[in-house]
Design goal:
This protein is α/β, with parallel strands linked by helices. It has a single domain, classed as 3-Layer(aba) Sandwich (Dihydrofolate Reductase, subunit A), CATH 3.40.430. About 20% of the residues lie in helices and about 35% in strands. The chain has four helices and ten strands, in the order ββαβαββαβαββββ. The strands form two sheets. An eight-stranded mixed beta sheet has the order 5-4-3-6-1-7-10-9, with helices on both faces. Strands 2-8 form a two-stranded antiparallel sheet. α2 links the parallel β3 and β4.
Length: about 160
């Protein structure tokens, strides 16, 4: 099972200057709970913005640099090669960035989308691809209001391929 997991704004904004635009502790807590114990796949820029392998997960980094190395991580030079590294894993999470999301969705490689929608619009320099309702069906949704810890209204939405 390949799941794309992302937090996006109403206008599909993902990030700016290789960083998150908002701070939403509930989303970070959910991300940790959902991905712990599994393989996570990301592009090099996303990895470098995080700065280290995330605990209790197997990290796969995609880079065109054939000499790239990060201790504790698996390295692949293409999306397909990265997915092959996780072929024995029941659940692979693709966690970004924008180029990896775009390629995964364009090549129809994901089985599901696990999206946190932050109910606001932000200026960004990277965006998540449009979710095509002819390809993806919403199967679960939880809506939350802003509170003292989470500045924005948000929703956790799961989609499965039709």
């Amino acid at each position: 099972m390949i799941t794309v997991i992302a937090a996006i704004a109403n206008n599909n904004a993902l990030g700016k200057d290789n960083d998150l635009i908002w701070h939403l502790p509930a989303d970070l807590k959910r991300f940790k709970r959902v991905t712990t114990g599994h393989y996570i796949l990301m592009g090099r820029n996303t990895f470098e913005s995080i700065g280290k392998p995330l605990p209790n997960r197997t990290t796969i980094i995609i880079t065109r640099n054939k000499n790239y190395f990060k201790d504790g991580c698996l390295i692949a030079n293409s999306l397909e090669a990265a997915i092959e590294l996780a072929k024995e894993e029941k659940q692979l999470f693709i966690i970004g960035g924008a180029q990896i999301y775009k390629e995964t969705i364009a090549k129809n490689l994901a089985d599901q989308l696990d999206i946190t929608v932050v109910h606001s619009e932000f200026e960004a320099d990277v965006y998540f691809p449009e979710i095509d309702v002819k390809v993806w069906k919403e199967v679960a949704r939880e809506d939350f209001s802003a509170d003292e810890k989470n500045k924005y209204d948000y929703s956790f939405i799961s989609y499965q391929k039709i």
